[in-house]
Design goal:
By secondary structure, this protein is an alpha/beta fold. It is 38% helix and 16% strand. The chain has 2 domains: 125 residues, Aspartate Aminotransferase, domain 1 (Alpha-Beta Complex), CATH 3.90.1150.10; 246 residues, 3-Layer(aba) Sandwich (Aspartate Aminotransferase, domain 2). It contains 15 helices and 15 strands. Helix 4 runs parallel beside helix 5.
């Protein structure tokens, strides 16, 4: 009998430039060195036990078989009512809302549903790392422009703003889709009403669609308010709106979200959705539908997370980090280049590795949110943690 080794046939990678994500790498490094993980964006505190109870009730009521492909009626109607109450746009729950397996699946499905080989998709970097691979899988061409990094007299990045001139130049007759993200991960920047108006001016005489990633919609602080694409009728008519129950209700591991879009766009979305995931966890949908009935559960989030942001930022103010504005999301970006230590000259990735292994606090380099790393000396911390976790991290960071 032939004892030659068995070989796996060679094949071409669909994503040849994609490796393990920086979130996985930094979380593994944090675990290895027993560092406090402020890198990957997930809470370390439990969700509301009432939500757990609602899911258990659904399981015991035998809601354990396939739900409708589009999501259970109760949850879709709950989402429609929430969007109408908050943003004034009435989506048809039957034809314009679909429950997804998290925001990332909603993003990929939206892109696959409308982007054909050769179509151009405009993204704004730093950008969530799923955008570009989804475009690649659809055969599209990514056109990336960068947020403007505003610098002080010492060339230290202190804030970001929308690159309107570059965005205008990027939108062409070949543009199929524009991806926006507000509140923005990783910078925390929020779009204003004037920004949506300006975007409407840019796309008015084009066939470009919009994907609006709004998974942090309920985490907006100070005097700011979330300006959803749904609140702008002209833009809503050409947009996919993406959101996430996992982010809103502290259950990121459940992977349940939703997409809202005009019926013509949603028809195409559902064609792809039914074959790349088909449907989403049944008892969790019932639990979420019941929990969603009380708007306090999401309306209280701004004050809940602002308290965490303020606690963390006040502690960071006692370090040598320069804090960037954090009006939204549960991330705080800081610039480390003014620290009076040799490591302040390191690249963002190397600084985060050093911070994790030697100081015992994990962070994420903002350079990782670009296809080709752009070094600005800015890293991202997640403050969606228990106060004890943040206190322990601050104690270590204040020793820098």
């Amino acid at each position: 009998m032939d004892q030659s080794p068995l070989l796996t046939p060679a094949f071409s990678s669909r994503l040849p430039e994609v490796g393990t994500t920086v979130f996985t790498v930094m979380s593994a490094l944090a675990a290895k060195h027993q560092a406090i993980n402020l890198g990957q964006g997930f809470p370390d505190f439990p969700c509301d036990q009432q939500l757990i109870s609602e899911v258990n009730t659904a399981m015991l009521a035998d809601h354990n078989q396939y739900p409708p492909m589009t999501g259970i009626t109760e949850l879709r109607h709950g989402v429609a009512q929430k969007i109408s109450a908050l943003y004034g746009h009435d989506y048809n729950a039957e034809t314009e809302i679909t429950i997804t397996a998290g925001g990332t699946q909603g993003i990929m499905t939206a892109i696959l549903s409308c982007v054909s080989p050769g179509d151009e998709v405009v993204i704004i970097e730093p950008a969530y790392d799923s955008y570009r691979p989804s475009i690649d899988l659809a055969g599209g061409k990514t056109i990336a422009i960068s947020l403007i990094a505003n610098r002080d007299e010492n060339a230290c990045v202190h804030s970001y703003s929308i690159p309107w001139d570059n965005l205008a130049k990027a939108i062409k007759p070949t543009t199929r889709l524009i991806v926006i993200n507000t509140p923005h991960n990783p910078t925390g920047m929020v779009w204003q009403i004037a920004d949506l108006d300006r975007l409407a001016d840019l796309v008015r005489n084009t066939n470009a669609l919009i994907l609006s990633d709004e998974v942090y919609e309920h985490m907006v602080y100070d005097s700011f308010a979330h300006q959803s694409i749904a609140s702008h009728p002209e833009l809503a008519a050409r947009s996919f709106l993406i959101s996430s129950f996992g982010k809103t209700y502290h259950v990121t591991g459940w992977k349940v979200g939703y997409v809202a879009a005009p019926v013509a766009m949603m028809n195409e979305f559902r064609k792809v959705h039914q074959f790349n995931v088909f449907t989403v966890n049944t008892p969790m949908q019932y639990g979420l539908a019941s929990y969603l009935k009380n708007p306090v559960h999401y309306l209280s989030l701004p004050s809940f997370y602002q308290a965490k942001r303020d606690f963390f930022s006040q502690g960071l103010a006692k370090t040598g980090f320069t804090l960037l504005p954090a009006p939204a999301t549960y991330f705080q970006c800081v610039n480390y280049t003014a620290l009076s230590i040799p490591q302040a000259k390191l690249s963002e990735a190397d600084f985060c590795s050093w911070l994790t292994t030697e100081i015992g606090v994990a962070a994420i380099p903002v350079s990782a949110f670009y296809a080709k790393p752009v070094e600005s000396g800015v890293i991202r911390f997640c403050f969606a943690k228990k106060e004890a976790t943040l206190s322990a991290a601050l104690e270590r960071l204040q020793n820098l």
